[in-house]
Amino acid sequence: MEPSIDQLNYWQQLSSNLIKQITVALEVTNGYYFIKELNRQNVLVSIRHSDATATEVGRVVQLGAKQCTHL
Questions:
Q1: Beta bridge partners of 45
Q2: β-pair type (21-24, 67-68)
Q3: Using one digit for the tens of pLDDT, what is the confidence trace for 39-67?
Q4: In contact, 22 and 47? CB cutoff 8 Å
Q5: Burial class of 39 by CB neighbour count within 10 A (0 to 12, 13 to 18, 19+)
Q6: What InterPro entries does the annotation carry (predicted)?
Q7: Domain limits for position 54
Q8: Are 35 and 8 a contacting pair, CB within 8 Å?
Q9: What gap in Å lies between CA 47 and CA 45, rounded to an integer?
């Protein structure tokens, strides 16, 4: 599923803001914007297995990604 800030906000509302970690493929449409929003909401960002380049990974680390899933 493509990242959706509206969907994230809906899930956060349903869960009383209990979502604390999400794994994201950063090369998907709107991935960078989604990661920025996750960080704004203090949700830990984990980069999932992806086709991202080292430059792209470096960019999301600067945006606040803290870990990798399925490296």
A1: 22
A2: unpaired
A3: 999 999 988 877 778 888 888 888 888 88
A4: no
A5: middle
A6: Metal_Hydrolase (IPR032466)
A7: 5-68
A8: no
A9: 7
Q: Which residues contact 63 (CB under 8 A, 6 or more apart)?
A: 32, 35, 36, 39, 45
Helix extents (H) in 15-53: 31-40
Torsion angle of C-alpha atoms 28, 34, 39, 45, degrees rounded to 10: -30
What does pTM read for this prediction? Answer: 0.80
CB atoms within 10 A of CB 45: 22
Sheet arrangement for strand 21-24 = 21-24, 44-47, 67-68
C-alpha 15 chain-centroid distance: 18
The SS3 call for residue 40 is helix
Give residues with Cβ within 8 angstroms of 17, minimum separation 6.
41
Number of separate domains in the chain: 1
